[in-house]
Write a sequence for this structure.
């Protein structure tokens, strides 16, 4: 089937990116709140350090739920279609996020407050676990093979957009409200806004069409009966290697966007709005660079860029921590921008790379489980580990050691994965000849 670039393809990719941005907005709003306010509001009976650790613990629960969500929604995507996944995952995440903004604090209902927070964070993770697989398959399975990485980069830009929306709103509230008002109700506004964004996302996705690959599977009755069983039986090695490879990106991203926010405000005494501004600058640069990186992936391959990203992260983690420790905005921005671009070299192509590793009948489950298992490995524990090893007055070099180790582990995993670009290039040539 010849799949040409067209205005319809752009609209489809844009809708995919918008939905991903909204879902990640929900997820990141919680991460920012965990770094800034959830500790004192929901765990006030413990020390500030333990409160931060407890808040990051509830943050990590979302990552535990994400692989489970990828199994659940992956089954839907491989059995019923990619499109239903996009609707139901967005609905679940949006409702859970709005509910987080309505949870009373520990002062109002005691221990029930953190318990409710934990349950809603789990629901957020379930929804997001299904989102990524459905969004990238919507673009990759519609896209021409020789530009698959480029079109798959649209949903990969969604996390950056979602982060900027969530933190931009938080930054505006932080800058305009007093500390008392921000703690009283201001931190809740980004969660309530998720309801409006979810409604917009559902309207955008209601008009999407099913992908050609799934229509072919359904027409030929070759869909997997139990997708996760086939993935575990025949593709477990690919899933584990993909998860290990991508764990580096999660570790770096949440070090910059979540842990450094808490560290900068609590340990270095940097103003909250300054830290948010530094972090947002780095995320914006990384998001803007994503399609350019994807073009390189279409030209030179997915695996070389993943290896280059791991190598760049390995070389930059010690400079990153040194620059962060200065507490000077310009130097922190430099550290954050290079760190985000380094891991972005790899993550700019994974929207195409992961789906290409799996056959169509189990693609939604395999790609999503690998991606979200990486979140558990690299994202859930990183703020906890970093907060623990950064105790004390000196420069937290232990964080750099940890991140360098994760990057080297990811490098080995990518070395063991195959390249997929020659196969897609061959498909593109075949399609051009047929046309």
């Amino acid at each position: 089937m010849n799949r040409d670039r067209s205005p319809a393809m752009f609209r489809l990719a844009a809708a995919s990116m918008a939905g991903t941005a909204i879902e990640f907005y929900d997820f990141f709003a919680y991460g920012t709140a965990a770094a800034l306010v959830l500790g004192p509001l929901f765990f006030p009976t413990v020390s500030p350090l333990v409160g931060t650790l407890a808040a990051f613990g509830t943050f990590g629960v979302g990552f535990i739920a994400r692989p489970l969500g990828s199994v659940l929604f992956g089954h839907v995507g491989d059995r019923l279609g990619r499109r239903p996944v996009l609707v139901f995952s967005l609905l679940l995440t949006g409702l859970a996020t709005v509910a987080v903004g309505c949870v009373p604090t520990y002062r109002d209902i005691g221990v029930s407050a953190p318990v409710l927070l934990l349950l809603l964070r789990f629901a957020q993770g379930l929804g997001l676990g299904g989102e990524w697989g459905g969004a990238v398959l919507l673009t990759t399975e519609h896209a021409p093979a020789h530009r698959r990485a480029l079109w798959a980069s649209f949903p990969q830009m969604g996390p950056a957009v979602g982060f900027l929306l969530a933190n931009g709103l938080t930054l505006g509230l932080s800058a305009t409200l007093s500390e008392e008002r921000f703690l009283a109700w201001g931190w809740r506004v980004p969660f309530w806004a998720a309801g409006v964004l979810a409604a917009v996302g559902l309207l955008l996705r209601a008009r999407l069409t099913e992908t050609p690959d799934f229509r072919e599977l359904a027409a030929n009755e070759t869909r997997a009966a139990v997708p996760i069983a086939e993935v575990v039986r025949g593709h477990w090695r690919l899933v584990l290697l993909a998860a290990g490879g991508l764990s580096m990106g999660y570790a770096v991203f949440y070090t910059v966007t979540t842990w450094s926010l808490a560290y900068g405000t609590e340990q270095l005494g940097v103003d909250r709005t300054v830290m948010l501004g530094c972090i947002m600058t780095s995320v914006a640069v990384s998001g803007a660079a994503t399609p350019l990186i994807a073009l390189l992936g279409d030209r030179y391959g997915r695996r070389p860029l993943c290896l280059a990203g791991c190598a760049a992260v390995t070389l930059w983690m010690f400079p990153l921590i040194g620059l962060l420790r200065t507490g000077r905005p310009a130097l922190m921005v430099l550290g954050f921008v290079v760190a985000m671009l380094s891991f972005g070299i790899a993550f700019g192509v994974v929207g195409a790379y992961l789906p290409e590793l799996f056959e169509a009948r189990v693609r939604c489950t395999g790609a999503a489980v690998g991606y979200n298992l990486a979140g558990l490995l690299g994202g859930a524990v990183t703020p906890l580990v970093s907060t623990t090893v950064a105790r004390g007055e000196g420069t937290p070099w232990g964080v750099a050691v940890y991140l360098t180790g994760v990057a080297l582990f990811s490098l080995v995993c990518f070395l063991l994965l195959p390249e997929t670009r020659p196969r897609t290039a061959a498909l593109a040539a075949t399609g051009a000849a047929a046309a």
